[in-house]
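Incident review: delayed structure delivery

Summary: a single-chain prediction request sat in the queue longer than the usual turnaround. Root cause was a stuck worker, restarted by the on-call engineer. No data loss occurred. The affected request and its eventual output are reproduced below so the record is complete for anyone auditing the incident later.

Affected input:
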Amino acid sequence: MLSSVAERVYWLGRYLERIENSARLMDVYSSMLFDLPGTTDIGWGVLLDITGERVNYAAKEGRIDELPVLKFLITDQSNPSSIFSCMKLLRENARTTREVIPAEAWEQINDLYLDTKASIGSSMGRQARRNLYDTIISDCQRLGGLLSSCMSHNTAYTFIQIGRGIERADMTTRIVDVGSISLLPAFKKYGQVGHYMEPFENVVWMNILRCLSAYQAYRQHIHNRVKGAEVVRFLLQDEEFPRAVNYSLSALNRYLEQLPNHEEVQRAVLRVKRITCDAKVYSLLENGLLDFIDELQISIADIHDELSKTWFGPVEEPEPIKAVVIPKVSKKPVAKKSPAMKTKAKAPAKAPAKAPAKAKAKSSPKAKAKSKARPKSTPKMPAKKTVRKK
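Output delivered after worker restart:
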């Protein structure tokens, strides 16, 4: 298939997963803040830090409060990472690849876009937002099931699943990052005043498990009560729960093996998997979970960079070969000049040689910054090349 089509279905998978997990993230953060005591001094700015949007928000808004922050992250079209902006890009990628995805999938994506557009145009109160989160999550799950059961498991489907796997691993780390607020100075300061903080820490980690629909799976694997270290270990290192980072990376590795020239991308995946498996969770919670999550997200961004370089990069055009013009040799006999014709004939004036046209400079793809902010929009379509399945 063409690399432009492969790139679009890849981003279709990423945006589908990003929309669902963004709704999960905002839902769990809202629920958690209402369960915590107000004196913990933990506000909505932490959500901007987790999503990597604090700088963009500060450039547009001044006050950090519940409603402006959530409107910026849900409905603001100037924010390329908002739910509605991702919804528009999901719809556009689906519209331009309708020949390779089921017609029912396109119809459902279009309905999801129109329903979301109608919902955000009305009231954005707490109950309305909660209903919107539930609708988005259920519709995205239904769409994922439809693609799995009604689409041929060919190269296009493989790229969709690769996109979903990368995005799911990244978003799970961000949701785990929510639990890091229990390590923030504001949270610890509240505990030093004489308050017993363990129940509130359990509230944080239990909300994270419920956000990922992981509470029941966690209790089946770990029979003890909910503890921060066990939750982090489960969501990062478990090999059986589908939303755990390790499971997503293993699934990604399996899908990569179905594509040609996957070796470099596979090495990047294995590097992230090694970082995740080698993490000492208990020491991280005491010393540096925030820094570890940042490092993990940068490593996941490296997978995307390798993948883009392998299958979506521009095709190198060969240098044009200049034709060498060989003058023709005249075969006619040269007539001898008579003595009377000794006067020199004037040579015809040579036409001025045209200056060689300057070759157009080839544009090189811009390197994407490795930060917590993921690629916000679909990149420009590169020159077409063919991705053949083995």
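Verification: Residues 58 and 110 are 32 Å apart (CA to CA).
Action items: add queue-age alerting; document worker restart procedure.
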